[in-house]
Amino acid sequence: MSDVFLLYESQMRLIETFFPLAHGVPRVDDRPVLSGIVYVIHNGLQWKDAPTAYGLHKTLCNRFIRWGRRGVFDRIFVALTEQAGRSKRLMIDATHLKAHRTSVSLLSKRGFPRHIGRTKGGLNLKLHAMCDDQGRPVRLHLTAGQVSDFKGADVLLADLSNETEDVIGDRRYDSNTIRQSLADRNITPCIPPKKNRKSKPPYNWHLYKKRPLIENMFAKLKDWRRVATRYDRCAHTFMSAIQIAASFIFYPKE
Q: What architecture does CATH give domain 86-233?
């Protein structure tokens, strides 16, 4: 295992409190299994192509799907964002992600939406995200590709902490509803007005120059091939892959 990627022991100590308790037969060692899951997601492999050093590929796949359904990776991501501390300045944006043919199904399964839609670019989905002033994701939300950015903003901007002072977004978020919602909570919107606006609200263009941080965040997430392209049919399984990538890239490694 010396030449195989493994999560640091310090990383395992950070997240092991969120692992479900084993019942009956002890489960396979968590460290190589989770390391194998990270390896597959980063390199865009099929589960059967995972190196044998990580164990049976069925174990990796089953652990990833089962823990994703139980919300383990979601709780880890939320805990890491809270441990990093709250930021006074947040940025909001959205990006399209391609849906591979193996994931495509516009129908819902057991009442859960697939979050795959049809746009000019084909079948895809949209990742709405909010990051802090260091470019670390703090909130993530999936929708179908054709869904308006305003609907994603409604989810991301809900229940912001009292410490938030500024929210930076591009022209797509220029709406009276969003501006008023932020103003009601004493949050200053840093959003350039659309060109067709008759009355153009002022904004801090010096502060707006910080917005590339969230663009860089999306670029780093898309370096992980099973995030840039969705292979999973279930939306919550794909969201687990995004949460794993976000947790590994942006939060403590040692």
A: 2-Layer Sandwich (3.30)
